[in-house]
Amino acid sequence: MAYGLLKGKRGIILGALNDMSIAWKVAEKAHEEGAIFTLSNTPVAMRLGTLDELAEKTGSEMISADATSLKDLENVILRSMEVLGGKIDFILHSIGMSPNVRKGLPYDSLNYEYFLKTLDISALSFHKLLLLARKHDAISEWGSVVALSYVAAQRTLVGYNDMADAKSLLESIARSFGYIYGRDKKIRVNTVSQSPTMTTAGSGVKGIETLIDFTERMSPLGNATAADCADYCVTLFSDLTRKVTMQNLFHDGGFSSMAMSLRAIDQYSKSFDECD
Ligand SMILES: NC(=O)c1ccc[n+]([C@@H]2O[C@H](COP(=O)([O-])OP(=O)(O)OC[C@H]3O[C@@H](n4cnc5c(N)ncnc54)[C@H](O)[C@@H]3O)[C@@H](O)[C@H]2O)c1
Q: 41: Cβ below 6 Å to ligand 1?
């Protein structure tokens, strides 16, 4: 059911790769809610993914950009204002990648060049995006910028590797820029800390299937799906959340406030039965 929450709003959505991507679901939902937007991803992702399908379905222009490149990001911002016909009301940063995770290098044996790449792609790109948007005064007053994070920013999870550090940095950037952008332009900057989700990036996390089962058992409301995340992001882009800024907002069915649940302890006890 659509509510017209984003009627008349212009946006930029970065990071939709295929129909499993969280950004893809956000784009579908934002379209349903009346927004117009551009879609951006790397040239390789645009070639290998299925972004053109989404672009056609939502009537959006695709703009290629490597999120580590200031020049590319600047082009995304300027081109988006041009094709959408004015300032931007919302931006979704849904970008993450760790070459260390890809290459299977554990946290106590990181390659530092890769580590810097992880931070650049997954966190600094958010700073670059905000800096360039501000430089070009590209976001309307009361606009909203959201980046996707994960609970590994606060709690240690086996296998999340240097992405945990990237997410901590990402959340810190949201607070630091949120202050400046809020103070000067009344623009909101938040991160949404999403449940583990089976996407292309998600499937790179070690033991993702077991993790998804664990968090499902631990969360009183169950895991949040990518579609649930899209619903939440849309509320953050809407005018109904104008005073929410500089927050890391957990969207995880309650997982982040739990230590042990009945369902998880039942499952945990079973492993002892099997050992007896
Ligand atoms: N899947 C999960 O379990 C989960 C949970 C919490 C947060 N997140 C976060 O959600 C966001 C989206 O991930 P997803 O799960 O939808 O997976 P996804 O693989 O669909 O999206 C990740 C995107 O990052 C893009 N990307 C990688 N390097 C890039 C670069 N240099 N420049 C521009 N784009 C680049 C990819 O092309 C891809 O579109 C990420 O920030 C991820 O960390 C995911």
A: yes
